[in-house]
Each structure stands twice: as C-alpha cells, then as structure tokens.
Specification:
Length: 489
C-alpha cells in the first residue's frame, strides 16, 4: 500500500506545532507496518538542503489561471522516510517562516494544492511512483480531495483514495471564495457544502470530498460533532460521522526517552526514577534561579501562550496559590502579548517562587518535563496534546482539563493509594476549578508520596508509541481505498 502524506509542516524540516510532529513521525510507524509511506511538503526557503541531504529530483512548468510557474521537486530521506519538498516562486522557496499573513497564505496554499496535483502526475510519469491514497492534513491541503474527485474518471485518478486529518478544527481556511476564484479553482457543488454555506471553507471542502476523515483523539472526534467544539463545521462532521475516526497521536519514543535524552542532567527510566530523576529537578531549580529544594513541589508549563490553552483560568489560580502556599513555577513559551505579560508579572511578583522563560527552547522544554513534579495543561480545548504524554513519559504528573486528547490520555487520581491514576483532571472552565485541583495535587504531593510514585511509574510505563495508532491508520487507508475503487468501478 502506497501512502503520500501532504502537509504544510513536517519535522524536522519545518515545525510550528503538533502537525509537524505527526507528519514527521507517523510515516516511520507506517513503514514499520509494511506500507510505502512518503511525505510531501513545501520547500520553504529556510530549510537547509545541505544539512538534510536534500537533492533536486525534477522540475516542470505549471500553467494556471494566474500564469506560468516553474515547480521544482526535491527529495531526501530522514529516518528511513522519503520526503519530497516542493518549491515554486514566488509562493514557496524564499520565505523565512512557515506561515505569513492571512491573505498571502490563502493564495499560496491554494496554489500549493494545484502544484501538488501536478507533482503527483509528474511523479508517476518520471519515477513510476503513484500513491494508492493521499493523506492530507488540515486546511492547507484540504483542496486535494476535491481536485482528485474533479479528475474522477481519468486514469489513475479514478481510484485514488483520499483521507483528511483534522488536527485543530479552529483553523479552517474559511472565507476563501475570492481566493479560489482568483486562483481558477472550479466551483464546489457538493450538496452538503452548498446547503451549509461551506463551499468557501477549505477544511470543509476537504471533509466533504475525502473518502475518510480522521482526527487526533477519540474524544475530540465526538466533541467536533457539536457546535461548541466543531463550530460551523459541526453539522458537516455529524453527516460524515460514519466515516470519521478518532486516532490518538503517538510519540516518537526513541526521541522522547528520559533514559537516553542528552539534554538531561541525569538520565532515568521507570525502574530507577526514584533515585535518578531528582537531579533533574535540582538542575531546573538552579537554572531558573529558584531555591534548590527537593521537598517543594515544582509546577511546569511548556506551551504556546494562547487563549485556547486556558491560561485565562490558570493565571489567577497560580497567583492565588503562589501567594498562599509553598510551591514553585517554571513556565516556558511564547504567544499572545497579554498572556506573556501576565507570566512575566508572576515572575516579578514571586521572584523566589516563579520564573517565566518567554522564548522557545527545545532543550529547556525537555528539562522541564524531566524536572517538574506537576505539568499544567488547563486547555479550554485540546484536540490531542503532546505535552501531557511527554510529561508522563518523563515522570511528571499532568494537571489538565478533561477535554479532547487530555481526557483520552490522563487518568484521574483515585484520591486514595494511587492504584489508579496518572494525573489530576478538572472539568469546569473556571479559575476556581484550576485552583482547587492544584491545591489537591499539592496536598497529595506532600501527604501521599507513595501514591505519587505509583502514578509516576504508571505514567512512565504507558505506551504512547505510534504502533497502535499506526495500525488504526492502516485500517483507515484500507477502507478509503476500497471506497475509492468502488467509486472508480
């Protein structure tokens, strides 16, 4: 089975969020399962071809409504995965960031879909490789399923399957009508899109025309059927409910391994963490200019500082608890100015208890996972979330809102001897819920150390690898391919 993943991001070449982690690591698991999985993404100007051993493959001219452009395809291999990088000036190949301003991103990602269709044809003609299924991700590549259907009865396209993955339904590529017309994209006449007013919504187009649909956790698959989580796409998701699967994201467990992680002060595993993990806490406290104390609970935050992440609830709670109790806070992230300012203010007001690093630092993030006792993820919504998985693998207990992938991965403490649980969950979206749950966790840390260690060990032993999820994707692809071939016949 030949699978081509099309994505705006893929680690290690271009990463902004979790989409890149999935596009960069899922294909390796699929290849281990026997599939010929490959990835295609834009060849952004900041990608160092020499560093990754990327070589030219071929070029061709693409004629479209706005003119004639040269498309150049490059190829390389990372961890056994073949990658294709697509450049085509002025859309892709000279930029310093993955994303730009909204109107330019609309124009260039619509063009990307057109160029990808042409690249598929060229790959078949020039290399003899053509996928059985194209797996697109989010709105950036959401036009591909529609374009494949537009080629309906033509040769290889007639039986080409498509799957779309929704990583965060809040980002939809909506209001794209003028850009689609400007780019020469044919009208979308799908009955559901017309009835629901979604013919100009790029993610909606992908959902309507894909053979199968996935999202990044089982809980999120149910949540997005309702307007509070699925927004204007909820009715369309509900209509495609039989074709929707919630498949939990996995971790690259070779990369995220506290036993071998070179960034840590002390490596450890689930057998020796009681002895070998504490030096990481001491190192983190020292680096953050906090008192080095083993007895004081340390709360960690590694996050994009955005409203979605629930810091409007968490910041008042943290301020109250820092003022009333013996605890420490180390936060790392960048994002919305108001949230950055609020974390900076905590740093200033509680200098001996709180430190905020308003920056991106991958090594420090891993040191926070390995050094904190409680990892805070108070998200209003979280399609999957990777931070809670990384924290558990590194021996920290998540404190999270019971939503999306957080609900699927974190088991609430049994409030007893720790025979069940890997963290602390709250439901209500209010500061009092965060504060009450944080106080609960601090009490358990101080009064029930054996229960705490049981939860740490259970979290570290939880299997967050891609193996199970990859097998679910194989089933998803098989069903999509069967649907496409039936349609082609």
């Amino acid at each position: 089975m030949k699978i081509l993943l099309a994505s705006a991001e893929a680690a290690p070449f271009a990463k902004v969020g979790g989409l890149a982690d999935v596009a960069g690591s899922l294909p390796a698991a699929l290849r281990r399962a026997g599939l010929d999985a490959r990835v295609i993404l834009p060849g952004y100007g900041f990608i160092d071809h020499k560093q990754f051993g990327i070589e030219p493959l071929f070029s061709f001219d693409l004629s479209h409504r706005l003119g004639l452009n040269t498309v150049s395809l490059f190829t390389g291999e990372h961890q056994g995965i073949p990658f294709y990088l697509l450049q085509s000036a002025p859309y892709f190949g000279i930029e310093g960031d993955v994303y730009s301003h909204w109107d330019w991103d609309m124009e260039r990602f619509i063009y990307l879909n057109q160029a990808l269709m042409a690249a598929l044809h060229a790959l078949d003609e020039r290399t003899g490789w053509f996928p059985d299924c194209v797996h697109v991700n989010d709105w950036h590549t959401g036009l591909l399923p529609f374009m494949i259907r537009e080629h309906g009865g033509e040769g290889l396209w007639a039986k080409l399957a498509s799957v779309i993955s929704i990583h965060n339904i809040a980002y939809q590529g909506n209001h794209a009508g003028g850009f689609l017309w400007h780019g020469g994209v044919h009208g979308r006449h799908h009955a559901d899109l017309l009835e629901l007013g979604l013919a100009d919504n790029l993610l909606g187009i992908g959902i309507a025309y894909s053979d199968m649909i996935s999202t990044v956790s089982p809980r999120y698959a149910e949540e997005i059927k309702h307007p509070y989580a699925g927004y204007e796409l909820a009715p369309l998701i509900s209509r495609r409910g039989e074709d929707l699967r919630g498949i939990l994201n996995g971790l690259d467990c070779d990369l995220w391994d506290p036993a071998t992680d070179p960034t840590l002060a002390s490596n450890f595993d689930c057998d020796n963490f009681v002895r070998e993990r504490p030096p990481n806490k001491s190192h983190l406290q020292s680096y953050a200019r906090l008192p080095v104390r083993a007895d004081i609970p340390l709360v960690g935050v590694v996050s994009r500082l955005a409203a979605q992440k629930g810091f409007d609830m968490a910041l008042p709670a943290l301020r109250n608890v820092l003022g009333a109790r013996d605890m420490q806070l180390v936060a790392l992230g960048t994002g919305e100015a108001a949230i950055e300012q609020a974390f900076w203010q905590l740093d200033q007001d509680f200098g001996d208890k709180a430190t905020a690093f308003l920056q991106f630092d991958g090594a420090l993030a891993q040191q926070i996972y390995a050094g904190c006792d409680i990892f805070l993820m108070p998200s209003h919504f979280e399609p999957c979330g990777m931070g809670q998985m990384m924290a558990m693998r590194y021996g920290a207990l998540p404190l999270a809102r019971e939503t999306g992938g957080l609900a699927d991965t974190v088991i609430n403490y049994d409030n007893a001897t720790g025979q069940a649980g890997t963290g602390f969950l709250f439901e209500w979206q209010e500061a009092q819920a965060v504060e009450g749950t944080l106080n609960w966790a601090l009490d358990v840390y101080a009064e029930r150390p054996e229960a705490w260690r049981r939860m740490q060990e259970r979290g570290m032993k939880t299997d967050f690898s891609w193996q199970k999820s990859a097998s679910e994707y194989v089933e998803l692809y098989e069903r999509a391919i069967a649907m496409a071939r039936s349609r082609g016949d």
